[in-house]
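quick one before i forget lol
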Amino acid sequence: MRINTDGVHYKEVNQKIHQAVAAGASEIILENVRGQRYIGTGLGAGVSLEIRGVPGNDLASFMNGAVITVRGNAQDAVGNTMNDGKVLIHGVAGDIVGYGMRGGKIFIAGDVGYRTGIHMKAYLDRYPVVVVGGCAQDYLGEYMAGGWLVVLNLEDKEPPVGYFTGTGMHGGLIFVRGEVKPHQVGAEVGLAEPTPGEWEFLSGVLAEYFQDLDLAPRSFQPGEFVKLYPKSARPYGNLYSY
């Protein structure tokens, strides 16, 4: 099913999507998307949504299992509080990607902006994963509580991440391909190499990433990556009375 969104208000666009799903549509193509917000909010499993254009803020917010493919760039807050599913972005994305994300995967071919992965969390079998093909700006993984963030830096730029990476981080892991200097990370973060078990999982995720984004596969070695991990599960415990 195709929906032309040219000049259509974001509320009407989302109404059309949910009406189509309620009528039994499982594959939907949105054409001429120009910044409409909240696309894919709450969509469940079994729905495939292809976006041709640039979706606005909060793409896939609260999504529950659908697959969204963006044939271009995306704006801010992709995957806001996303529960499950997958978002594939063939271009770049803006700020706060994966904000409060609780499950599913977001694969981005290019760069991301500031505060990617802020407040990401994991619970039981829900374990969010964000993979960035390019580089990330400041505050990557801020207050991160769970899940995995991966910055591939495929164009070998320096530095691959900005300042204050992992500030307030108290769960989850961040893997960065390239050099991360101690002054770039929050005081709550330690630096190490991936363990064999982590590398096995990471290798599987990266194979999925390249396949899903129709990119030529690449092989990596564990030594190319630095792991950022939280030194404490309660880094600001001294600020509280209990």
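fyi The domain at 2-239 is CATH 2.160.20.60 (Pectate Lyase C-like).
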